Fold N-acetylglucosamine-6-sulfatase-like isoform X2.
Amino acid sequence: MLLHIIPILLYVGPTFGFIQQLPSPNILLLLTDDQDVELHGMYPLQQTTKILSEFGTKFTNAYTNTPLCCPARASLLTGQYAHNHMTFNNSLNGGCNGHQWHTIFEPRALPVLLQKHGYQTFFGGKYLNQFKGAEVPPGWNEFYGLHGNSRYYNYTLRENKRNVSYANMYLTDLLRDRVVQFIHNVISEHDQKPFFAMISPPAAHAPFTPAPRHKGVYSHVRALRTPSFNTPSKDKHWLVRSAHRLPNSTVVTVDEYFQKRWETLLAVDEMMVTLVSLLKEKQCLDNTYIIYTSDNGYHLGQFAQPFDKRQPYQTDIKVPLLIRGPDVPVGLLMHMPVSLLDIMPTILEWAGLLVPNYIDGRSFRYELLQMHQMNPLSQQRVLLIEYWGEGNDDTYNPACPGQHTDHLAECTLDADCHCQDAWNNTYTCIRDFRFKRDRIFCEFKDTEKHMT
């Protein structure tokens, strides 16, 4: 079997140099949907946590740059902030899978760069919310992209050259089978190329449908009763401050969604075990970087907000990030602040590529290599978090109080008509970790201006 070789940039003191030829590393990225950290969202992934934490590094201060699916995913793929890649929200008008994405940003996204460098690439699952399967995006050798937003049954995938619909196949399990076959095929080739595989299952996104084998596993669990649970707050911005205490019926719904979110993640945990076992069986686990993260977090009852993301608070902006692979420290807790933006430049350096100057993210490859002499300045970091409210005439729900001109959004009966977004729920925040401050400062597009 022939292995593709690239010159690996090794640190040998005060300067970098190409020291030795090593096999190109494989890269496996598992991206979940709306998975929180603050509310113990990693609890169902016991085996994943063991595999990646005990044999890798767990990041304790990882954040999304935008707490919403499409902008966050576009940032992960480009390494750029939303104000640079112009995907502002989940709508086509907001740039999600729109003209600028297709013509400017997608052609230079992560899979394109890796494919040009000799990688075999795979994508399976939710791509961008407005992806409708017209064609395979550039850079993917194998592509199984979900049409639209996350769902577990009754979905359509763009499967390479055609669109295929499924009614009764649980999506997470199908994605597991597709990526297993891809890895098996790549590793079995005589002229073995390195692979980059990105899997994006629907968990833990609504409609929170667990696999039948996992239904009811957490029926005894309630939503985490944090100090702010079902407690309206008067020191937040107006949208959150307008929340009223949730009635018991809505609290029951919050508990049910909490349970089901955990149950959807059990199939993801099984998928990770299957993939790691396959890599170990094929004797390529030690040369594979495995990344586990989510596009954004989620709240369930905090400040009497029923369930959603979109807000600049820890539940919504903090995400899981666990990594194992060549030279990744084992059993380490990494407290250095990082953003989803940082994943792309880190992957490029792992693959032996230079990081383009238009990328906003900062590679943390060096910090992982040099944990024994960590630069204190790496802890003194400020992260940018931004969001554009989606409320407009079309987001009005006549079943709830209010009117079209209020431009409120995400107002639903199961949330007791608490509107969880608005046209001016638009903000720019600085998540500041300098000098052990650990604080956030936000400016909103409203008459109140800021929040600390």
About this structure: The longest helix spans residues 248-281. The chain has one domain: 26-375. Residues 7-20 have pLDDT under 50 and may be disordered. The two ends are 58 Å apart (CA to CA).
